[in-house]
């Protein structure tokens, strides 16, 4: 895939639209090119948010699976690069929200199962 860094906005738009058209038509080769071109940078980007390489790889791989499975219905209003990075960022935030909920319920579960004793009088919290 040619580099987009020095192209004019209109050229980038046309290039992205061509890639998007090919992707919508189920072009496996263009999907492979997109994957090869963006995978590493998307994983590094995700790692900034989730601080875990394996989780970052899972998030990016899930994004690419979703991209392929939904290739015929993609609506991209930005550059493909911006779309990919924003999609991965949103998935990172979803992951972090899920972790927060999971941790909250794990803590509540521990508190429900644990009987606390008051340190001063030895009475349990359930007494």
Walkthrough of the structure:
The model has no long low-confidence stretch (mean pLDDT 87). This protein starts with 8 loop residues before the first helix and ends in a 14-residue tail after the last helix. The protein has helices at 9-24, 28-50, 53-69, 80-113. The longest helix has 34 residues, at 80-113. It has one domain (9-113): Orthogonal Bundle (Rna Polymerase Sigma Factor, Chain: A). It has 4 helices and no strands. By secondary structure, the chain is an all-alpha fold. Helix 2 crosses helix 4 (80-113) and helix 3 packs across helix 4 (80-113).
Give the structure's gist in a few sentences.
With 127 residues, this protein is mostly helical.
SSE string: HHHH
- Low-pLDDT parts are none
The value of Rg in angstroms is: 22 Å
* Strand coverage percent: under 5%
In helices, the fraction of residues equals over 70%
Q: What is the number of independent domains? A: 1
Largest sheet, strands/sense/barrel: none
* Average pLDDT rating: 87
What is this structure's SSE topology?
Elements: H1 9-24, H2 28-50, H3 53-69, H4 80-113
Helix pairs in contact: 2-3, 2-4, 3-4
What are the main properties of this structure?
127 residues; single chain; 0% strand; 71% helix; mainly alpha; Rna Polymerase Sigma Factor, Chain: A
């Amino acid at each position: 895939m040619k580099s987009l860094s020095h192209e004019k906005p209109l050229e980038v738009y046309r290039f992205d639209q061509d890639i998007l058209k090919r992707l919508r038509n189920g072009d496996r080769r263009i999907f492979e090119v997109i994957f090869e071109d963006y995978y590493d940078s998307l994983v590094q980007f995700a790692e900034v948010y989730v601080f875990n390489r394996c989780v970052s790889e899972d998030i990016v791989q899930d994004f690419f699976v979703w991209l392929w499975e939904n290739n015929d219905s993609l609506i991209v209003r930005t550059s493909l690069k911006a779309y990919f990075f924003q999609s991965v960022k949103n998935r990172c935030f979803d992951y972090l929200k899920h972790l927060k909920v999971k941790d909250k319920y794990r803590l509540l579960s521990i508190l429900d199962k644990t009987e606390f004793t008051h340190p001063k009088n030895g009475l349990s919290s359930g007494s």
